[in-house]
Amino acid sequence: AQSVTQLDSHVSVSEGTPVLLRCNYSSSYSPSLFWYVQHPNKGLQLLLKYTSAATLVKGINGFEAEFKKSETSFHLTKPSAHMSDAAEYFCVVSETRYGQNFVFGPGTRLSVLP
Amino acid sequence: NAGVTQTPKFQVLKTGQSMTLQCAQDMNHNSMYWYRQDPGMGLRLIYYSASEGTTDKGEVPNGYNVSRLNKREFSLRLESAAPSQTSVYFCASRSKANSNQPQHFGDGTRLSIL
C-alpha cells in the first residue's frame, strides 16, 4: 500500500531564505509523485510532478523537488522564500497500476516572516 | 479556461437536510473524484468515477452518494446531513485513472451542518 509522510506539520522561514519541505513515501511499485499548494480558502494547485523522467523536477514559482529512490524521499525546495509562498503544501503519491489511489500527505503549513 | 467548477461555494444546512454538490470539468477528462478536507487530515477520498458510467467507493463513503451524470459532471449527495459532515469538499478530475497524470482541483465547497 502507498503512504506519504510529511515530516513537519509547520515550517517557518524568513523572507529571502531557503525553503525545505520534507516528504517521504512508501510504494511497492514505481510511483508518480506530486506537490500541490493550497492558499487560504482556495483549491489545490499543482506545483510540480515526478513521473520517472528526470529525478530533479522544476515546478512553478521557483520550486523544485528531487526524487531519491534510495531514501524514498521527494523533498520540496526553493532558494529564496517570498511572502506569497505562505500556504499549505501537500505531497502526493500515486501508483499507475492503482491510478485511482492518489494518496495525500497530511500537509505542511509554510509561514514566511518579513 | 474554467477547469473544474464546483457549486455552491458555501452552504449551511441543518441536521437531517439533504443537499447535492455539483461538479463539472471542461478538460475532457475521463476520471473524476470527490474529497473532503478536515484540519490535520489532508484530503480523504469519498468516491471516484474512473470513467463515465462507473463509480467506486473511496476511503470515507458512508453518508454520501454520487452520480456521474455524463463525462463532464459528477455530483455528490448528502441524503441526511450530520454535523460530522461539516467539511470542505473538493472535486477533482484526471485525464484517466490509471495514468501518471495529476489531478486538477476545483476551488471547493465549504459546508457547515448545524
How would you sum up this structure in a few lines?
Chain A is an all-beta fold and 114 residues long. Chain A contains no helices and 12 strands.
Topology (SSEs and partners):
The complex is a heterodimer of chains A (114) and B (114).
Chain A: E1 3-6, E2 10-14, E3 19-21, E4 23-26, E5 31-38, E6 44-50, E7 56-58, E8 64-68, E9 73-78, E10 87-95, E11 102-104, E12 108-113
Parallel strand pairs in A: 2-12
Antiparallel strand pairs in A: 1-4, 3-9, 5-6, 5-10, 7-8, 8-9, 10-11, 10-12
Chain B: E1 4-7, E2 10-13, E3 19-25, E4 31-37, E5 43-49, E6 56-57, E7 64-68, E8 74-78, E9 87-94, E10 104-105, E11 109-113
Parallel strand pairs in B: 2-11
Antiparallel strand pairs in B: 1-3, 3-8, 4-5, 4-9, 5-6, 7-8, 9-10, 9-11
Number of beta-strand segments of chain B: 11
Largest sheet of chain A: 6 strands, mixed
Biggest contact = A-B, 25 and 28 residues
The Cα radius of gyration of chain A reads 14 Å
